[in-house]
Design brief:
heterodimer, A: 334 residues, mainly alpha, ABC transporter involved in vitamin B12 uptake, BtuC, two-stranded antiparallel ribbon, two-stranded antiparallel sheet, 14 helices, B: 513 residues, alpha/beta, Rossmann fold, 3 domains, 6-stranded mixed β-sheet, 19 helices, 22 strands, 34% helix, transmembrane transporter activity (chain A), ABC_transp_permease (chain A), cell membrane (chain A), transmembrane (chain A)
C-alpha cells in the first residue's frame, strides 16, 4: 500500500536550501585543512622546530607513501567498499621489485614488475567483490593474510637486499629541492583527481558508492566499476612499494607495510570521505594523509612517548569519524 | 448501512486522523469490530488501510482528536508492545518470524519462560504444543522455521497471536503467497478463530475472498471512511462504486491525438515471465501511444516493467523493439537500445541524493557525450542540465545543488530528465507521480503528453485510477502475474475506474473489448 514517507514537502524555500547546500559544500571542500593548520601551529609553538624547510620536507616524505596508498583507498571507499590488503600488497610488490632488480639482465623491469603484481592482486580482490559478490571486508581481510604469506614466500622469508638499486634515486633524489617521493605522491593525487572528477568512470564510481541500485538501473556496469577501484588500489600499493624500497634498498616480506592499511583508511576518513561511499574527495585524502604525517612527526618532535603517540593518533581518528557522522546527519536527506 | 450485531463491540476506532509531512493519510476514519466477526477492510492502493492498521498496532501514532476503545474502554496505543498487551496482533504480508529459531522459540519470542535465570526450552515446547495442535499444525514445536513453507509460517504467526491471547487479529492480504489448497486451509482456520470469539480484521483486494469470508466489509477511499456493508448487502458493483468514485478528469491534458499520432508498434512483449511474480504477459505499445498498466499492488506490474528493462532476468518470452529482438540483458543494454525505466522508488533506486542535479541529469548520457578516453564533456553536461531545468521547470537554485535538497516533485523531474536526455523510444514509467505535489503532478502529465506527441511509446504503471483514466489511450489490467484484460476507451464507452477495478480485483474475469 501507500508509502507516505516519501511524500514531498510542498513549496520548499529553494533560496534557503541553496544557501545551506553551499555552506555544506564549502565545509566539505575545506574539510580538515583547518585542523592541519592548527596542528602545525601547535607543534611549532611546542617544539620551535616544526615549521622549518628541513622538517616540512621530512613530513612530506613521511606522508608520501601513505598518501599514495590512501589515494587508492579513496577510490575503494568512495565506491562503498574497503581494502584491508594494501599493506600486504605493498610487501609482496616490494619483494618482487627487489628480486627482479637483482636479476642482471632484466633489472630494469623491477618497477613495472612491482606495480604489475599490485595490479594483479587488486584485480583478484576486485573480481571477488564484483563478480562473486563477496563482501569487500571479507575479501580483503583474507587477502591481508594470504598476500602477507605470499610476500614471505617470495623471499623464502628472508630480507632481500640490493645496495646498488637502479631506482634508488626515487627514494633519495630530488629536483629543484623537491624530493622525488613528494613529486610522485602529488602526481598520484593529481591523477586520482582527474579520474574521479573529469572522467565518466569517476562519476560512475561516485554513483556506485552513492546508490548501487540506482547506478545499475541507470545503466552503469557496476561490476566493472568495482573491479576498477580495487585494481587502482592494488596498483597504487605497487607504486607505494617502489617508493618504499627506493628508500630502504631492501625488502622484507614479514615487516614491510605492516598495518599500513590502517593509516591509509585513517587518512581517507580524516579527509571527510564517507565510510558508506559516494561522498568525498581526493583533496580531503591529501589533507588527511598530511595530518597523519604531521601528527607522527610532531609528537616525536615534542618528545611524546611512543605509547602516547598511539593513543593520541587513535583518538584523533575516532574523533574524525564522529565528525563524519555528524556531517552526514547534517546533510540533506529529505 | 449495516445492522449492529447484538454483542458489544470489541474494538471501536472513531475519528482517526493521520497526517504525514503535510499530506493527509487519514481524515476521520472509523472502524468497529465485534467478537466472532470477520471484518474485511477494502480500498484502492493508498486508500489508508495500512495506515489505519499501523495505528491500531502501535506502529504509528494517530493525530490527536480520535479515539480507540477496546471493550468499551478508551485506550492509548503508544507502541507495538502496548498493542500486544492489549491483545492486538497483526500478521503482515512479510512475515516477521526469525527463520533461524524453532517454532516454539518464535511463539515465545520476547516472553521466554525462565528457570533459574536460564531459558526454559522444555516449558516453551510444552506450552506451544497444544496451541499448534488446536490450529491443526502438522509440525513440531522443535522444527526450525526456516524448514517451513510460507503457509506453515503463517500458521506459526497465528499460533503466536493465539498463544499471546490476542482478541483482535489483523491479517494483511494473507493469501498473496498461498496456493489455493493452502488458502482453503487458512480460511478454515480463520473461521475456527471466529468461532472462538476473536475479531478478525481482514485486508484483501480479492472479491471472492471477501464473499467467502467476510461478515461485514468497511471501505476506505483517499484516507476517508466511505461506509460499511454487511454480507447480505454485498455486491461487487456496490463495493467497486464505493472504492472508486473520484473524478479528476479535467485535471489531465491530453493533446496528443490518438488517431493521428499513434504509429507503428514500437514495443512488443511476447509471453514474458519470470516464473515468480510475472507468470506470462504479452503486450504492444505503439509510437505516440500512452498505455497504462493498472492492477493492484503485488499483481506483477513493476516486475513486468523490470523484466522488459532487463533489470531482472526473464525465464521465458521475448521483447521486440520495432520488430527486432531487444532481449535486454541489463539496464545498460536496454538504455542503449532506447528503452528506459522510471523506478517507483526514486530515492532508493533512482537518484543519487548526494550528487548534483547536473550529475543526476547527465548520468545516463555522459558516456555518449564524453571525449576521447572517457573524459567528461563538462560544457555539454552543463548545457544539458540548464536546458532540462528550464524545459521541465525544475525549481532549483542551480545545477550544482544536491538532488537530496529538492522537493519530491522536483526530484522526480530530475529523474525524468535523465531518462529523456537519452532520447528513448520506449518510456516505462512506474508510478510517475508518487509522492509529488499536485502542481508537479500536472506538469508530469503534460510532459508525458508532449513525449507522446513526439512519438515515444509510453507504458505507465499507476495505482491511481483517476490518473489512469485521465492519461491512458488504452489500459491493460494485471492480476496475479498475468494481464487480466484490456480496456480500450471509445467515444461511446470511455475508460472507467469501475471497469479497471472490476478486472483488477477479479470481480469480473471476462476481457472487455
Amino acid at each position: 500500500m501507500s508509502d507516505k514517507s516519501g511524500t514531498a514537502v510542498i513549496g520548499e524555500d529553494t533560496a534557503k536550501t541553496s544557501h545551506r547546500a553551499k555552506l555544506q559544500s564549502v565545509m566539505r571542500t575545506v574539510g580538515m585543512a583547518p585542523v592541519l593548520i592548527i596542528l602545525a601551529i601547535i607543534f611549532q609553538l611546542l617544539s620551535d622546530r616544526f615549521i622549518s624547510v628541513q622538517n616540512l620536507s621530512i613530513v612530506a616524505q613521511q606522508a608520501s607513501v601513505n598518501m599514495v596508498l590512501a589515494a587508492g583507498m579513496t577510490f575503494v571507499i568512495l565506491s562503498g567498499g574497503i581494502d584491508l590488503s594494501v599493506g600486504s600488497i605493498l610487501a609482496a610488490s616490494s619483494m618482487v621489485a627487489l628480486i627482479v632488480s637483482n636479476i642482471p639482465d632484466i633489472s630494469f623491469l623491477a618497477i613495472p614488475a612491482g606495480i604489475l603484481l599490485g595490479l594483479i592482486i587488486g584485480m583478484l580482490n576486485g573480481s571477488l567483490v564484483a563478480f562473486v559478490r563477496l563482501p569487500p571486508f571479507i575479501v580483503t581481510l583474507g587477502a591481508l593474510t594470504a598476500v602477507r604469506g605470499f610476500a614471505r614466500l617470495l623471499g623464502s622469508d628472508q630480507t632481500v637486499f640490493n645496495p646498488s638499486l637502479d631506482y634508488a634515486v626515487i627514494g633519495n633524489g630530488d629536483i629543484f629541492g623537491i624530493p622525488w617521493l613528494v613529486i610522485i605522491a602529488f602526481a598520484v593525487i593529481l591523477l586520482s583527481w582527474f579520474i574521479l572528477r573529469r572522467t565518466v568512470l569517476g562519476v560512475h564510481i561516485y554513483s556506485v558508492g552513492g546508490n548501487e541500485n540506482a547506478a545499475r538501473l541507470a545503466g552503469i556496469k557496476v561490476p566493472l566499476v568495482l573491479l576498477f577501484v580495487y585494481a587502482v588500489s592494488g596498483a597504487f600499493s605497487g607504486i607505494g612499494a617502489i617508493m618504499q624500497t627506493a628508500r630502504l634498498y631492501a625488502a622484507n616480506g614479514l615487516q614491510l607495510g605492516q598495518s599500513y592499511e590502517l593509516d591509509a583508511i585513517a587518512a581517507v576518513i580524516l579527509g571527510g570521505t564517507s565510510f558508506v561511499g559516494g561522498i568525498g574527495s581526493i583533496w580531503g585524502t591529501f589533507v588527511g594523509a598530511l595530518i597523519i604525517a604531521v601528527l607522527s612527526n610532531g609528537l616525536v618532535l615534542i618528545g611524546i612517548s611512543d605509547i602516547w603517540q598511539f593513543i593520541i593518533k587513535g583518538l584523533v581518528i575516532i574523533g574524525a569519524v564522529a565528525l563524519d557522522r555528524y556531517r552526514l546527519a547534517g546533510s540533506a536527506h529529505t | 448501512m449495516s445492522e449492529t450485531p447484538a454483542l458489544a463491540p470489541i474494538l471501536e476506532m472513531s475519528n482517526i486522523r493521520k497526517t504525514f509531512v503535510g499530506v493527509k493519510a487519514l481524515s476521520g476514519v472509523q472502524l468497529t469490530a465485534y467478537p466472532g466477526e470477520i471484518h474485511a477492510l477494502m480500498g484502492e492502493n493508498g486508500a489508508g488501510k495500512s495506515t489505519l492498521m499501523k495505528i491500531l498496532s502501535g506502529a504509528y501514532r494517530a493525530d490527536p482528536g480520535g479515539e480507540i476503545r477496546l471493550f468499551g474502554q478508551p485506550v492509548t496505543i503508544d507502541g507495538p508492545l502496548a498493542a500486544k498487551r492489549l491483545g492486538i496482533a497483526v500478521i503482515y504480508q512479510e512475515l516477521s518470524l526469525s527463520p533461524n529459531l524453532t517454532v516454539a522459540e518464535n511463539i515465545y519470542l520476547g516472553s521466554e519462560p525462565r528457570s533459574n535465570g536460564m531459558i526454559d526450552r522444555g516449558a516453551m515446547e510444552e506450552g506451544s504444543a497444544p496451541v499448534l495442535e488446536r490450529l491443526g499444525a502438522n509440525f513440531k514445536p522443535r522444527t526450525l522455521v526456516a524448514d517451513l513453507s510460507i503457509a506453515e509460517r503463517q500458521l506459526v504467526e497465528i499460533a503466536r497471536a493465539v498463544h499471546a491471547k490476542a482478541r483482535i487479529l489483523v491479517m494483511d492480504e494473507p493469501t498473496t503467497a498461498l496456493s489455493s489448497r493452502e488458502t482453503d486451509r487458512l480460511f478454515d482456520l480463520i473461521r475456527q478463530l471466529r468461532r472462538e470469539g476473536l475479531a478478525i480484521i481482514y485486508i484483501s483486494h480479492r472479491m471472492n475472498e471477501i464473499y467467502e469470508l467476510a461478515d461485514r466489509v468497511s471501505v476506505l477511499r483517499d484516507g476517508a471512511y466511505v461506509g460499511t456493508l454487511s454480507s447480505d448487502e454485498l455486491s461487487a458493483e456496490r463495493l467497486v462504486k464505493m472504492m472508486v468514485g473520484r473524478d479528476l478528469s479535467g485535471f489531465y491534458t491530453k493533446e496528443h491525438d490518438k488517431k493521428s499520432h499513434i504509429g507503428d508498434v514500437v514495443l512488443e512483449v511476447r509471453d514474458l515471465g519470470d516464473d515468480r511474480r510475472v507468470k506470462t504477459a504479452s503486450l504492444m505499445v505503439h509510437a505516440g501511444e500512452v498505455v497504462c498498466l493498472a492492477g493492484l499492488v503485488g499483481s506483477g506490474r513493476t516486475e513486468l516493467a523490470r523484466l522488459i528493462f532487463g533489470a531482472e532476468r526473464a525465464t521465458h518470452g521475448e521483447v521486440l523493439l520495432r520488430g527486432q529482438p531487444a532481449g535486454a540483458s541489463s539496464p545498460g543494454a536496454a538504455i542503449a537500445r532506447g528503452i528506459v525505466y522510471l523506478t517507483e522508488d526514486r530515492k532508493a533506486q533512482g537518484l543519487f541524493l548526494d550528487m548534483s542535479v547536473q550529475d543526476n541529469i547527465n548520468l545516463a548520457v555522459i558516456g555518449r557525450d564524453s571525449k576521447a578516453g572517457g573524459v567528461l564533456d563538462l560544457k555539454r553536461a552543463a548545457e544539458r542540465a540548464k536546458d532540462a531545468i528550464a524545459a521541465l521547470q525544475i525549481r532549483v537554485a542551480g545545477p550544482k545543488v544536491n538532488v537530496g535538497t529538492l522537493s519530491g516533485g522536483n526530484q522526480q523531474k530530475v529523474l525524468l530528465s535523465r531518462l529523456i536526455e537519452t532520447e528513448p523510444q520506449v518510456l516505462l514509467l512506474d508510478e510517475p507521480t508518487r509522492g509529488v505535489d499536485i502542481g508537479a503532478k500536472s506538469e508530469i502529465y503534460r510532459l508525458v503528453d508532449q513525449l507522446a506527441q513526439r512519438g515515444v511509446a509510453i507504458l505507465v504503471i499507476s495505482s491511481e485510477l483517476p490518473e489512469v483514466v485521465g492519461m491512458a489511450d488504452r489500459v491493460l489490467v494485471m492480476r496475479d502475474g498475468t494481464i487480466a484484460g484490456e480496456i480500450t476507451g471509445t467515444a461511446e464507452a470511455p475508460i472507467t475506474q469501475e471497469a479497471i477495478m472490476e478486472l483488477a480485483t477479479g470481480a469480473k474475469t471476462a476481457t472487455a473489448a
